[in-house]
Fold this sequence. Notes:
- By secondary structure, the chain is mostly helical.
- Helices cover 72% and strands 3% of the residues.
- Among the domains are: 31-88; 172-267, no CATH class; 285-349, no CATH class.
- The protein has 12 helices and 3 strands; from the N terminus they run H-H-H-H-H-H-H-E-E-E-H-H-H-H-H.
- The longest helix is centred in the first third of the chain and has 48 residues, at 3-50.
Amino acid sequence: MAKKDLYSSLKQIASESVGVKNQNEQANKDLINKQDIASISSVAETAARMYPNNKQKQFDYWKRNTNINGLTNDARNTYWKTYEKMHPRGLDGAKSDFINVTLIEMGYISGVSNKEFFLRDKVANSPQWAREVLEPELAKLSTTVANANLSKAAQVYSKSLQEKLNKFISTNELDPDVSVDQHTADLVKLEQMNLFDVSRVINGRIGVYDQSNNFIPGFAVEERAQIFPDDQFGTPSFAEQVLVRDAAIAPVKEAIDTRVSAQRSQISIQERQAAMESTKMLEQGSFTVDRWGEAFSINPESSPQDQILRGLRGEINSKRITTERQLAETIYTAMSKYPTMFGDINNGNI
């Protein structure tokens, strides 16, 4: 036999085998379905013979000896038709009985999630008349569970974000001349793009490097593909970005505000220390007249009058001024070199 014919024969045998298997499976399912339907009817007949004059006992016996779990759709339909037919109070009684018992049973279950699981199973096996009542209750439970899960997820996310923020902020110096809101916007934008983990601080600004090793500030990142062009997941959806923004903006701003405020406070302390040192050096004569401007710029908040007087005291303390003539020459030189300082003095400060 040629290889081609052999292959065709094997393929046909396999196809026929699969077909036979499928037919057998369907036949088995049909047989089980018929058996389930027959069992439901058989138990009902037994109940009628056992309690011919007591509808309630008939119903209780039938209900106790039948199980709806695992039934096919046909068998389930038979179950509910029998349920309605055998109930002592007919269809209205069947509805009231099943729904009330279900809600009472649910009331004994602890935990919203467990209640949802219980009711979801009940609804899956319920007739339409029960679903009309139970599905709204299930929707309420599902919403409650979803909100609780969202709250838990937000708490987990917030804790994770806080840990990343603490590490990131503590190891980077931000530009104190840039507003807290702008730094916050940069970092939140990167978090929305799922780029926090590759963020860097360059010259005090928060951003990321692209594939060409170009630094892009956070505010300039429009999509994740700018940084990872081959990323199969792409830019997060708008809905996801909104959720991240709402959850991240407060902790990010708080962390950045703390960091920038500390940096600005340190700068202020350093400026005061520098001003005090320059004042001391000016009065000691460490700055000659031609260098007074350096001391003046270090201590800009001091009045022009005080600055000039300190400079003159420095010249005297350093013995560069020992006569009235030298004093006059120094004042003239200072007036020529720093006219704005003397302009304030001439306006009535001395």
